Each structure stands twice: as C-alpha cells, then as structure tokens.
Sequence to fold (232 residues):
Amino acid sequence: MGKDVIIACDFAGKQETMAFLEQFQEEKPFVKIGMELYYAEGPAIVRELKVRGHKIFLDLKLHDIPNTVKKAMAVLSRLDVDMVNLHAAGTAAMMEAALEGLTRPDGTRPLLIAVTQLTSTSQARMEKELLIEKPLPEVVLSYAELAKNAGLDGVVCSPLEAGAVHARCGAAFVTVTPGVRFADGEVGDQVRVTTPEKAKEIGSDYIVVGRPITQAADPVAAYRRCVKEFVG
Ligand code: C5P
Fold:
C-alpha cells in the first residue's frame, strides 16, 4: 500500500480551493473533497481537480438503502475519483451493493472505505442514543471486520486505532486516518491526535491533514514536512 498524505480541502467554494492549490507548483497533492465543497460546487469541482492532476478522495459518507447507494456509487465512479466512502452502519448488504455500483465495466474501481463510528460519537451517546452497549473500540473493530468481509478496502479511523485495525483485518486492509497534528502545532477541536511520524509508526496508510496545512503560514512547507515525516 503506497503511503500518502491527503490534504482535506475544507473550503467553502472553488475560488478558495483553487487559490490554495495554486501554491503547489512542484507537487500534485492527493486531496479530500468533503460535503461542504461538493455540495457547493457539485461534480464540476471534482472534474476540475482531476484535470489538474490531483488524486481525489471524495468524502461523502453514503448511507442509504442498498439500491440507492449502488446507483449513487456508479455515478461517483464515473467521476473517476480514487477513493470514496460510506457508513458501515448501512450494513453488509449496502456495502456489497456499493461495491457493485462502484465497479466500472473494465473491472477497475476507486478504493472503497468505511466509516465505523464517527469520532464525534462518544461511548455514552452510542449507548444512550444508538443503543449499542459494547465498548467503542470493539464496535470500531467489529465494523471494520464487517466492512472487510463485505469486500471493502479499508476504514477511516483514528491513527491511534490503525494498529488494532491491521491486527484484526490484515496488513493490506487500508487505514485512512485524520486527527494528525505536528508535535509543535495547534490541536484545535481534534481530541485524539498524533503526529505524522507516529501515525507512520502505528501503521496508517493514508493520513488526512486539514488545518495544519491549509491554515499554515506556508502551506507548501507544511505539506512537505508532513510527507517527510509520514512517507520518509
Ligand atoms: O483540519 P483537520 O486536520 O482536523 O481536518 C481533518 C479532516 O478529516 C476534516 O475534513 C474532518 O472532517 C475529517 N475527519 C475527521 N475525523 C473523522 C472523519 C473525518 O477529522 N473521524
């Protein structure tokens, strides 16, 4: 699995996104497009970034009945993105349908990654509101296994969980991990964070980094530092 740094392009629109990416003259970073940017600009923003040579993780976290997700995934697949995701809570039938929809006529498809439990969900809320009474780390690993058995390529998880996910689901099962901060940087609203170097050590395959790069005084230097610490 090729380790890489994915920049979370959490911008409100195209103009801001382009202004940010134009600073990168020598490299073409792997970028994540989330709900905000996608809902603001639609598929055009994906096509535009693709034409400019970026790899794209489309972070739309699909969760619906299997047939709807299958059809939506077929549309996303035609956008030629490199990675998409869904909620494992949609169950195995939904994940299998998603894979079917995502697979292009030539057999290729983007990587399909599952969200297990959102990092904003606490043990207490999961128990009280979702009626799931198992310990959260166990739920995360169990959902990861469900995703693996459904044929998915990996999960989004905390870098601190990447080792346990690999232990349960195998070295080839991809871990995509947000919650990364430089040792001397601001933590912001993230709680369980680690450095790019430590994420590499624990076994993350892709780190998703937003503000430490997008809000840096010199984003290109911050990106290069991330790559150096994480990829080596
Ligand atoms: O700015 P920051 O580095 O915290 O950005 C992390 C990115 O990863 C954001 O786009 C955030 O929505 C996303 N993310 C996360 N935690 C998750 C899933 C996604 O921080 N569990």
In short: The CA atoms of residues 125 and 131 lie 9 Å apart. The first strand starts at residue 4 and ends at 8.
